[in-house]
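Progress note, sequence design subtask.
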């Protein structure tokens, strides 16, 4: 009679063989999938950003991550956010700035392109404390 070790080895080997075969079949049949992408509408935005974020810096603040997002609603989602600009402010001296720039990232909606969405700009920030840094 076989010991428990042999039986466990046989079950594990059979399970891994079946799993490998199933992964191979999924990979093979994935080649026959033909997704139909929708059109992309990209908008280029020129921005003037003036900010004074010096009050965010305390004795424990290492840096502040700031980003400007466009928020809008679609029939499928109640809140969509697109990042238009981001930056890292390393010190309190750099926390007062004026930037004239174009958006870094493409502004697009994959589900309902060009259907008159009304974006609202939202400036968000996240302060990183010194204890959070390894």
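Output:
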């Amino acid at each position: 009679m076989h010991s428990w070790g042999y039986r466990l080895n046989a079950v594990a080997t059979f399970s891994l063989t079946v799993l490998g075969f199933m992964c191979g079949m999924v990979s093979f049949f994935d080649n026959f999938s033909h997704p139909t992408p929708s059109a992309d509408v990209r908008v280029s935005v020129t921005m003037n950003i003036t900010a004074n974020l010096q009050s965010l810096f305390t004795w424990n603040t290492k840096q502040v991550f700031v980003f400007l997002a466009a928020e809008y609603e679609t029939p499928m989602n109640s809140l969509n956010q697109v990042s238009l600009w981001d930056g890292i402010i390393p010190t309190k001296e750099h926390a007062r700035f004026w930037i004239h720039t174009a958006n870094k990232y493409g502004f697009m909606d994959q589900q309902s392109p060009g259907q008159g969405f009304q974006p609202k700009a939202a400036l968000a920030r996240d302060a990183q404390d010194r204890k959070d840094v390894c």
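The CA atoms of residues 17 and 107 lie 46 Å apart. Work on this subtask will continue into the next period as scheduled.
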